[in-house]
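A.,

Following up on our hallway conversation. Structure tokens first:
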């Protein structure tokens, strides 16, 4: 067992340095595209089986699905529904879920938000994403949700104090440090006072994936950013120490910070943060 754990640790370190090399050579995006086609072959039979079993379930184009999640139709459906139910259990702890406005920040191909009309009932659902093709597909195929196309710039078309709930899962994880601050300000602008913001980050459990230099930076409470291009894409990755997030939302109330344990199914779960807006006026 000790030998297995040691070998696994060594492989993780090697992978971290290999990833850095690919980024330095500026071929990480090309490698990711090749990986996409590998996954098309890998999941071909499973995905065809799902389509035959669920002919009425509308699926996004393969690359949009891969870019935002993984190229597994069954997981897209099942995890989206399960996450919608899980988020409901979090939301209802802090907000009375009746005629409230909920925003999915970075919705991707609607994996989660498409289930909310059935899971959450009498509420009003919005979603926004920087990928124009994704939003085009969502508008054409997902009803009962108002979709918006945004850019990487932290500018949204909503009024101040508009939403009761905003959530963004694995969105900060693909942004630079400056964009963390810009988007935090914009999201707090459109969030009602006493509203909640639920989001996830790559926390301490990701330390083994970092190089020794990155680990020191992380332990010093500084954001670790891998890449200088393709911001917002899956190949752009950021790791957030808790100290950084607390500084980012220093003027608000951090209600919960959850650090899930690793499991066999998910060895690197993301941290979950729940922030209540207490600054500004209603």
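Then the amino acids I'd put at each of the 282 positions:
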């Amino acid at each position: 067992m000790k030998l297995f754990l040691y070998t696994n640790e060594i492989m993780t370190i090697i992978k971290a340095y290999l990833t850095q090399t690919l980024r330095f050579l500026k071929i990480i995006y090309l490698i990711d595209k090749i990986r996409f086609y590998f996954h098309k072959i890998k999941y071909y039979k499973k995905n065809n089986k799902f389509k035959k079993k669920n002919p009425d379930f509308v699926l996004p184009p393969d690359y949009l699905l891969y870019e935002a999640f993984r190229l597994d139709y069954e997981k897209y459906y099942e995890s989206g529904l399960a996450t919608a139910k899980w988020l409901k259990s979090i939301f209802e702890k802090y907000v009375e879920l009746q005629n409230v406005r909920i925003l999915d920040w970075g919705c991707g191909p609607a994996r989660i938000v498409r289930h909310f009309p059935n899971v959450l009932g009498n509420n009003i659902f919005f979603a926004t994403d920087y990928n124009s093709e994704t939003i085009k597909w969502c508008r054409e195929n997902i009803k009962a949700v108002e979709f918006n196309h945004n850019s990487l710039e932290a500018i949204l078309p909503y009024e101040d104090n508009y939403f009761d709930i905003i959530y963004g899962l694995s969105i900060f994880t693909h942004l630079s440090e400056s964009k963390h601050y810009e988007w935090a300000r914009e999201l707090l602008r459109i969030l009602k006072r006493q509203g909640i913001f639920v989001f996830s980050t790559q926390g301490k459990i990701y330390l083994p994936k970092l190089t020794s230099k990155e680990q020191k930076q992380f332990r010093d409470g500084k954001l670790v950013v891998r890449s200088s291009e393709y911001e917002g894409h899956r190949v752009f990755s950021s790791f957030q120490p808790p100290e950084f997030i607390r500084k980012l939302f220093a003027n608000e109330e951090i209600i919960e910070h959850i650090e899930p344990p690793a499991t066999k199914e998910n060895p690197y779960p993301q941290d979950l943060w729940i922030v209540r807006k207490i600054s500004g006026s209603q």
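Residues 1-12 have pLDDT under 50 and may be disordered. Curious whether your intuition agrees with the design.

B.
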